Amino acid sequence: MADNQTVQAYTDAWTQSIESISELLAPLPTDAWNRATECPGWSVRDVVSHIIGVESEMLGDPRPIHALPRDLRHVTDDFTRYMELPVDKRRCWTPVEITSELEYTVIRRSRALRNSRHQPEDLVRWPGGPLARDLPYAAVLRMRAFDVWVHEQDLRRALREPGNLDSPAAVLTRDLLIETLPKQVAKEAGAPIGSTVVFDVAGALPFQRTVRVGAHGRGSVDESVEPAPDVRLAMDWQTFVRLCCGRVRPETALVNVIGDQELGLRVLAHLASTP
């Protein structure tokens, strides 16, 4: 169960990351706002607009009234349509207009977080259109810090400005993604009962974890390193994040697959756990 210190840690991680985005955007020339990111169909401008849209919704602001064009090929279902609306609404905005709204939104959200009277386990609404649901307050804060940091990295890769790879939100992201590994390996990739998969991640946040598939086909993860796993997947921290967040195709990711090649490639193909 989360406590108030955990809530504060999540809030601090979100704050550090979203303020870093503001600092990253401040000196950008106008043409840099149109650079493509690894989010399908989204430019730097679009990623920032998405962040503003979600944070505004967390504040209770009404959704914008806007008709989406019919030729957006990356809009494929109700969820992507829901997420696209506040993004497309801002596509004609100038960089000054977007950065000003981002700064104002951050000020408002920071004030709301400071003044919140929610307890960690209180249920609050997690926005997402067809995926919207009520979640504990602490879980919502954790997911917002995760989402903002992942998008910060989308922006940094597009702008070739690496940074914050070991920030508080990065550590939070690492722990959250590790929690998804048992499901992705055992259920999504269908790793056989009794198999073991070791993730050997180097770089800014190095770690090793072993996923084991138990007798009932359920996965578990622990910090002990299996000396002779069925497959070992060695990669750097950024590659791990990009795979888990669907930012890179498994066949083009820089991963060293040691052991059962078929199983290793199947796991890589099913690591993505974000919508």
Automatic annotation (TrEMBL):
Pfam families: MDMPI_C, MDMPI_N
Gene Ontology MF: a single term: metal ion binding
InterPro entries (alphabetical): DinB/YfiT-like, Maleyloyr_isom, MDMPI_C-term_domain, MDMPI_metal-binding, SCP2_sterol-bd_dom_sf
Signal sequence, renumbered to the chain: none
Domain Mycothiol-dependent maleylpyruvate isomerase metal-binding: 15-156
Superkingdom classification of source: Bacteria
Domain MDMPI C-terminal: 174-263
Protein name stated in the entry: Mycothiol-dependent maleylpyruvate isomerase metal-binding domain-containing protein
Organism per entry: Kitasatospora griseola
